[in-house]
Amino acid sequence: MRLPLLNIPAERPAGFDTGPRSIRAVRVLRISVTDRCNFRCVYCMPEEGVRWLEKDDLLSFEEVVEVARAAAEVHGIRRFKLTGGEPTVRRGLVDLVSMLRRSVDVEDLSLTTNGMLLEELAAPLKDAGLDRLTVSIDSLRTDRFRRITRTGDLATVLRGMDRAAAVGFNGLKVNCVTMRGVNDDEFADFARLTLQRPLTVRFIEYMPLGDAAVSGQCSTREVDESEIGPAGGCGAQDRGEDVFVPEPEVREAIEADLGPLVPVEQDSEPGVGPAIVYRLREGNPAGRVGFISAMSSPFCSTCNRLRLTATGVLRSCLFEGGEVDLKPLLRQGTHQHDDRRQSLADAMTECVRLKPDVHGARGSEQMSRIGG
Ligand code: SAM
Known about the structure:
The chain is built from 12 helices and 13 strands. It has helices at residues 61-75, 93-103, 118-128, 142-149, 154-166, 187-196, 225-228, 236-239, 247-258, 327-331, 337-352, 367-370; strands at 5-6, 28-32, 79-83, 108-113, 132-136, 173-178, 200-205, 261-263, 276-280, 288-292, 305-308, 313-315, 323-325.
């Protein structure tokens, strides 16, 4: 069957089939299970939400498992990250975790969440076989957290994290998107969390993606300028590049308050993500501080992931590059199981060849659709 390739770059990048464009380099499949979210983070979604996908357009859990099996059995990709939108709002997520555990030879199964539903879901997710959790938090101040997420409640998220730790999720990660005028006075506070708790706090550079890169969506919203910055608007979504805080500035702010950060052996960090990890030298820290700096130091040459959107499109890059639609393969009834597994695996090989040399300055697609 011919592969349904989408958005193929006009010129194929050089180095075809080598380095990160080789399927052998892929170690993680990120699986988005929904485009929906119970937050409306100012840098990610307009207040009124976006037009949600139709239910029939989403891959079923059986289809997700089939893709994961093909990845594991044919290519040895055995690390999976569930994402969204907000993955916990997809009904039956716990069942999906069980199904992946039962049917796929999984080495590492993790989830990234905004944490709002974690208090009730942490135990069932653990029981179903989830290995690791990342929780996204952009402010440690209740009011500000609410303003950034528009619908979130910090105390609920923190209780969810406590519950996750209590039921045995070790090595929790916290993702914080660094944004000028939004949370740039809190970097040391985030790093301070690692003094007491065995967390890895990871600072993520803001990436201009999809509508988050352009203005307009919510400029009529009332904003507190002292909180979200001199450029006004409703936050990062309206302010494009001036919201960007490069990693060295974040490190400087942390070190000014808490002393030097010293490098940590990368292999000792759970997962195989792109974060460069440190720990505070002083204060006998229990946790670590990581940086994911896709804008100031793109890590495309060591990229080791593919992304599956909730609608079954395999995406080679968060920012751009080629896509391959797996849905026609999955929904074509006449295919024998083994043929289909091979076709899915071939689609992965084809997709990874479409990775750009280095991603561009702006991403073409909304983060909530791709899943980070
Ligand atoms: N809802 C889940 C969560 O909160 O982790 C999973 C999806 S969310 C899109 C994944 C991560 O992407 C979150 O940590 C979020 O803060 C981050 N993110 C969203 N838009 C971003 C942007 N424009 N730049 C950098 N990170 C972004």
